[in-house]
Amino acid sequence: MSVIASMMKENIEQGSLIRQMFDLGIKLKQQYGEENVLDFSLGNPDLPPPPVVREAMADLARNLNRPGSLGYMQNAGFSWALEALAEELSKEQQIKLTKSDVMLSCGAAGAMNAFFHSVLEPEDEVLAFVPFFGEYKFYTQNHGGVFKTVAAKENFLPDFEELENALTPKTRIVVVNSPNNPTGIIYPEETIKKLAEILAKASEKFGRPIYMVSDEPYRYLAYDGCTVPAVLPLYKYAVVISSFSKKFGIAGERIGYLAVSPEIEDKELLMSACIMSNRVLGFVNPPVVGQYLMKAALGTSVQEAFDIYAKRRQIFCEILDNAGLEYQKPMGAFYIFPKAPGGDDNLLITCLQEEKILGVSGKGFGLAGYIRLCYAVEDTVIAKSRDGFKRAADKARSLLKV
Asked: Which domain range does residue 161 map to?
């Protein structure tokens, strides 16, 4: 006799490999000391928020004597916050947006769940390219959908033929994540245009919209002159979902958003549904404090943070080169996705743990044979891992005789 739903029992058993490694990291740090465990498992930005965020927090605290200062507001967020967000996204997405085109929620996860809840019928399909952020599967199941994966090419860019073969009358959403977690790949504009062309034809064929949901919390981290294309002008049924967690170092404040293409038919109905979902899913409204911090930080330069992550990326690449591990240099975000010797990610993870180094198996992202490493950690932690990576990789190759 089970006290929980069968789906939740399955989810708990599968778990999140990222969270499992995070918990293991806590245990190892307690055992060996925090300074002796090199944890690259969790994408938790370690840089402090920019000064403008700290100033906004202090200003808010000084004015908490105002009636209702931390009270409810409209389910979509404060009107002034939505106006500021729409103005910022109009520049970023290169298309005119108004406050009626955007909604704030409890992180990008909250916004994505609200959107899925608004458009998915039972058994509708959500597609994502491999490798993918593992929580997409749970978000889909939350709302009665079926999560399916689509193979990518060896360079991690979408395989258009595979996508066309995967589309069915039940397909409702295709998720695009660029800059990508876990690979750091950025989809060029011509790729987004081709995806839009395929989805437009399929939408016409099946008689209902297939949404392209662009999940882009790492948009601000694009290296080597790469640019992240704006998707809203490129596809009629495009939706952008993101947050300020990574950009401004306020992940715990849970302030995310969605923005829809102004060209969507019945846009007002779609936004009403998303706002209602924001409420009935229990988020009710986006966090008050997060909205004040967002408003203060919009338009603030994050060049200092960008430079730090770019430097860390370079250090990590040199360490992986020294260890003889194959990888594709990240174009964006703060993750790197090296190939395990012999394609045995479990063995490499085990060998790394013996060196007190933590990474996440590629299985957690739908692609065995790789591991994900996050370099949102101090430079000194990355540098200390150099010899450990070399010993772990050498041991894995020795055991596999490769």
From this structure: 72-297
State which amino acid sits at residue 16.
S
Q: What is the pLDDT of residue 257?
A: 97
In this structure, are 230 and 367 located in the same domain?
Answer: no
Neighbours of 98 (CB within 10 A): 12
**Domain end among 247, 279, 297:** 297
Say how many domains are in the chain.
Answer: 2
Residues 264 and 223 in one domain: yes
Confidence check: pLDDT of 70 > 90? no
Q: Could you read off the pLDDT of 289-319 as tens digits, one per residue? A: 999 999 999 999 999 999 999 999 999 999 9
Strand order in the sheet with 211-215: 102-106, 255-260, 238-243, 211-215, 171-177, 125-129, 146-150
Q: Distance (Å, rounded) from C-alpha 60 to C-alpha 81?
A: 15
The tens digit of pLDDT for each residue in 271-287 reads 999 999 999 999 999 99
Q: Give the Cα separation of 86 and 260 in Å (integer).
A: 11
Domain boundary among 273, 297, 321: 297
Alpha-carbon gap, residue 292 to 281, rounded angstroms: 23
- Of 52, 37, 8, which Cα lies nearest the Cα of 249? 52
Task: Specify the pLDDT at position 13.
Answer: 60
Q: Are both 365 and 389 inside the same structural domain?
A: yes
Domain identity same for 127 and 255:
yes
196 and 232 inside one domain? yes
Distance CA 170, CA 187 (A): 25
Q: Tell me, what DSSP letter sits at residue 332?
A: B
Average pLDDT, the chain: 92
Q: Which two tokens stand for residue 256?
A: 């995310």
Any bridge partners for residue 174, and if so which? 127, 212
> Where residue 28 falls among pLDDT bands split at 50, 70, 90?
confident
Indicate whether 66 belongs to any domain: no
